[in-house]
Design goal:
single chain; 580 residues; Rossmann fold; 3 domains; 6-stranded parallel sheet; 22 helices; Thiamin_PyroP_enz_TPP-bd_dom
Length: 580
């Protein structure tokens, strides 16, 4: 058996087992050393391929797709710095628990560390971020080696999606020549000799004794809080709201909690807590007896202050399969059990827990008064950043997804996304909270076929504009709302703004870019509304057309900062005047 046949059979069996184990999509960046994987992936009848030229964009494209579909997605690149460009997305996948299968082609062992071109040290290139790393053996086609390569493929898919989802990294060395032979008989090998097709993984639960112990600790507590931070399980909403109803407890629902929209019961949901918890006086008035949190830490910094200031109360964090997500550093008891099962079981222990009716009414009244302030609009129809988000949430289609950028975008969503009956999944890259890769992530989500709106700031948009190429290549339907305050608007809310001699250069970073020309280059439709009415029309028209649609809303950073602060002050004044 010659080299080409061994290369082909080894690689074809590997790819076939990835597909057999559940892989449906692979994102490929062109390169020479990855030729065997790339060409054979395009030949496999049950694997969809997406070619994204830039590796950083490709990795975030795969990340967005995996977030949307909740299935592992593979990324394939050549050797050298191409693999290094995956690093930001690998980090995000680790922290936001997204299943990525990272496949980096490599030089064979004899060409490593000898000055060969396009050869870097790719062994454990991503450090501890992958859940599993393996440096693959060089291709052979013996029965033992074909079993070996199938086992590694099966383990990669299984490991990425077991427990807390995350990235895995397989480094695959190839010797030249690299072009496979498609004429071979039985190209994809025999699956009869492959490893087990799946794995049965049970859900963690609490036994009756453990449930009773938690109940006993809370029996005398009348002022509880349920908090739901960023998470992606669409079925959790009914369970959490059911627990809140049983215990008469308010729910602080993060915009990424999947609780603010949907058909579930919402009377106990408090969505404007970030606005009124900015007041230290109000935070002191609202001291709870306990907090139970599901999902990651909420976006709201005001909530973090609230937790830190009440660090002596019992706090429980529910993690489906373990993990440590408590950045406030408070004394916390972690409950490692399936969140839905925990909610349903705790709801049965409702006697004596959360029965202070005034407590729930207080939160609900503060929420109503805050929403009245937040939703009030100037009669002029002037466009503000908050107004743009409010308008988006009024017209965004049912049964769609919203991918939101970091910095001000997700915070404005937190403030202005009120409860709604529509079905809307909200996604974001809140693992590492970076602004890189946001356009590509949104494109990856849109590649699944779901209607997607991407909302982000001008710096995030600029940082990843080459991600727009995927929309042109694959005719993806996506609406992008760019809120352009000509720089880093979030810094206007931070202490750096008080140092004006350095602020614009180091933090404001105005770009003065005409984005319309870039949109034309990628074949998209571009609109720049100047009033709320024009924005509403622009959004409606974008949802009625195919392809890439970009809507740019221009605002002033200084005016935006004053507008937000005036809103927060008006809310505090109203609540304190209300006697609460």
């Amino acid at each position: 058996m010659n080299h080409t046949e061994q290369l082909t059979r080894y690689t074809a069996n590997f790819i076939d087992q990835l597909v057999e184990s559940g892989l449906t999509d692979a994102v490929i960046s062109p390169g020479s050393r990855s030729t065997p994987m790339a060409m054979l992936m395009t030949e496999h009848p049950d694997l969809k391929q997406w070619v994204v030229i830039d590796e950083r964009s490709a990795a975030f494209f795969a990340l967005g797709m995996a977030k949307q579909t909740k299935r592992p997605v593979a990324v394939v690149c050549t050797s050298g710095t191409a693999a290094a460009n995956y690093f930001p997305a690998v980090i995000e996948a680790y922290y936001s628990r997204v299943p990525l299968i990272v496949l980096t082609a490599d030089r064979p062992h004899e060409l490593r560390d000898v000055g060969a071109p396009q050869a870097i040290d790719q062994i454990q290139l991503y450090g501890d971020y992958p859940k599993w790393f393996h440096d693959m053996a060089l291709p052979e086609a013996s029965d033992d080696m074909l079993a070996y390569v199938r086992n590694k493929a099966f383990r990669a898919v299984r490991t990425a999606a077991e427990g807390n989802d995350g990235p895995v990294h397989l480094n695959v060395p190839f010797r030249e020549p690299l072009v496979p032979d498609f004429s071979l008989n039985d190209l994809w090998g025999r699956r009869s000799g492959a490893p087990a097709r799946g794995r049965t993984e049970g859900k963690r639960t609490l036994d009756n004794k453990q449930l009773e112990q938690i109940h006993q600790r809370l029996t005398s507590c009348k002022k509880g809080l349920i908090v739901c931070g960023p998470q992606t399980d669409p079925d959790l909403a009914d369970a959490i709201t059911g627990l809140a109803r049983a215990w008469d407890t308010p729910i602080l629902a993060d915009p990424l909690s999947q609780l603010r929209a949907g058909s579930h019961f919402k009377d106990h949901i408090i969505e404007s807590y970030d606005a009124f918890l900015r007041s230290e006086t109000i935070r002191k008035q609202l001291e709870p007896d306990y907090i139970i949190r599901f999902g990651a830490m909420p976006v709201s910094k005001a909530y973090r202050f609230f937790v830190e200031e009440h660090d002596d109360i019992p706090q429980f964090v529910v993690e489906n399969v373990g993990g440590y997500r408590e950045p406030a550093g408070t004394q916390t008891e972690f409950i490692d059990a399936d969140a839905i099962i925990v909610c349903n079981n705790l709801a049965k222990f409702n006697a004596g827990v959360g029965t202070d009716e005034a407590w729930l009414e207080t939160w609900q009244q503060m929420n109503r008064l805050s929403k009245d302030q937040l939703l009030s609009e100037p009669e002029t129809g002037e466009l503000t950043e908050g107004g743009a988000v409010r308008q988006l949430m009024r017209v965004i289609p049912d049964e769609s997804s919203l991918y939101v950028g970091n910095s001000m975008a997700v915070r404005d969503l937190d403030t202005f996304f009120m409860t709604a009956s529509m079905s809307l999944e909200v996604l974001a890259n809140r693992g590492a909270n970076g602004i890189d890769g946001m356009v590509s992530s949104g494109m990856g989500a849109a590649a699944s076929g779901a209607p997607v709106t991407l909302m982000l700031g001008d710096l995030s948009f600029f940082h990843d504009m080459n991600g727009l190429l995927a929309a042109k290549q694959y005719k993806l339907n996506i609406t992008i709302l760019v809120i352009n305050n000509n720089g880093g608007g979030i810094f206007s809310f931070l202490p750096q703004v008080n140092h004006q001699s350095h602020f614009e250069t180091l933090f404001g970073t105005p770009m003065d870019i005409d984005f319309g020309q870039a949109i034309a280059m990628y074949g998209g439709t571009y609109q720049q509304p100047t009033t709320l009415f024009e924005l509403e029309n622009a959004l409606h028209s974008s949802y009625q057309q195919d392809g890439l649609s970009v809507i740019e809303v221009k605002t002033d950073r200084a005016d935006n900062s004053r507008w937000h602060r005036d809103k927060w002050q008006a809310i505090e004044n109203e609540l304190l005047r209300d006697g609460r």
